[in-house]
């Protein structure tokens, strides 16, 4: 039973028999054909219409994580679709379940690290000192610094400089982006390893420039990768590889039992 004294409220949307209203705009007459998907996502999240500059940066944020090849999330989606082709949504969900602290979800870790670094640091902090403190703290805890390093893209993640360029060109490269760059340089200095800022690290910093809460930042990767997974499922339906992957892995895994 609902407690009548509690407040149940949403400011996002409502529907009537003849209209759907989203953040005060009529979906049919004021949004359809007038906003692209990225701009609508920004509007739905914030209740504000993106400026041209915000639009370019936010769309770049979303596009970056749509596709990255035959990754674990794509394989999971394809394998699930092979077993349940009647449930496309389950295949997409299976692929999305693996977006966490290793793949895609590190956007959240990067954003949280940067916000926490600035917390209590005052209005004009020494960014170099903050970078040194942040790296030292992670090393003391023996934790991987989110947003640094990549198993494939070395010495540079090709997406990162382009994202920083787009942010700079559109007036959205501020203290969070600068701190991340300094953290990356400091981590390489003290570790002696090549630790490029990866795309998810860059995206976390850019999301901080927007002011998005770190707890929602992983959601942008979820939104983006869902599009990519639908593409993989379409290809799987036309040119299947899941069964070949299955039989190949099974044969390799059990080869020692067959000798």
How are the SSEs ordered, and which strands pair?
Elements: E1 13-16, E2 19-22, E3 25-26, H1 27-31, H2 37-46, H3 52-64, H4 72-83, H5 88-96, H6 106-118, H7 127-140, H8 159-169, H9 175-191, H10 199-210, H11 214-238, H12 242-253, H13 255-258
Antiparallel strand pairs: 1-2, 2-3
- Cα distance spanning the termini: 64 Å
User: Helix proportion of residues, in percent?
Assistant: 55-70%
Please mark out the parts with pLDDT under 50 across 5 or more consecutive residues, or reply none: none
Q: On the 0-100 scale, what is the average pLDDT? A: 94
Would you mind describing this structure in some detail?
The structure is a single chain. This protein has about 260 residues and is mainly alpha-helical. Helix 2 (about 35-45) crosses helix 3 and helix 4 runs antiparallel to helix 5 (about 90-95). It is built from 13 helices and 3 strands, in the order E-E-E-H-H-H-H-H-H-H-H-H-H-H-H-H. The radius of gyration is 22 Å and the shape is globular. The longest helix is centred in the C-terminal third of the chain and has 25 residues, at about 215-240. Helices cover about 60% and strands about 5% of the residues.
Task: Describe this protein with a few key phrases.
259 residues, mainly alpha, three-stranded antiparallel β-sheet
What is this structure, in a nutshell?
The chain is mainly alpha-helical.
């Amino acid at each position: 039973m609902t407690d009548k004294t509690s407040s149940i409220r949403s400011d996002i949307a409502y529907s009537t028999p003849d209209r759907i209203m989203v953040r005060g705009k009529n979906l049919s007459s004021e949004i359809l054909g007038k906003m692209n998907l990225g701009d609508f996502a920004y509007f739905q999240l914030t209740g504000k219409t993106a400026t041209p500059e915000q639009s370019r940066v936010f769309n770049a944020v979303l596009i970056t994580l749509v596709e990255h090849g035959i990754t674990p999330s794509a394989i999971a989606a394809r394998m699930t679709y092979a077993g349940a082709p009647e449930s496309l949504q389950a295949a997409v969900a299976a692929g999305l379940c693996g977006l966490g602290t290793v793949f895609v979800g590190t956007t959240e870790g990067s954003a949280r690290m940067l916000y926490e670094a600035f917390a209590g640091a005052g209005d004009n902090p020494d960014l170099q000192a903050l970078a040194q403190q942040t790296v030292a703290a992670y090393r003391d805890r023996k934790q991987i610094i989110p947003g640094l390093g990549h198993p494939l893209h070395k010495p540079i993640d090709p997406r990162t400089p382009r994202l920083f360029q787009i942010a700079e060109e559109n007036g959205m490269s501020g203290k969070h982006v600068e701190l991340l760059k300094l953290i990356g340089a400091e981590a390489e200095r003290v570790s002696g390893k090549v630790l490029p800022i990866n795309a998810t690290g860059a995206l976390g910093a850019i999301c901080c420039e927007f002011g998005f809460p770190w707890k929602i930042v992983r959601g942008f990767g979820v939104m983006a990768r869902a599009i990519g997974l639908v593409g993989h499922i379409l290809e799987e339906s036309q040119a299947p590889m899941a069964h070949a992957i299955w039989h190949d892995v099974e044969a390799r895994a059990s080869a020692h039992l067959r000798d």
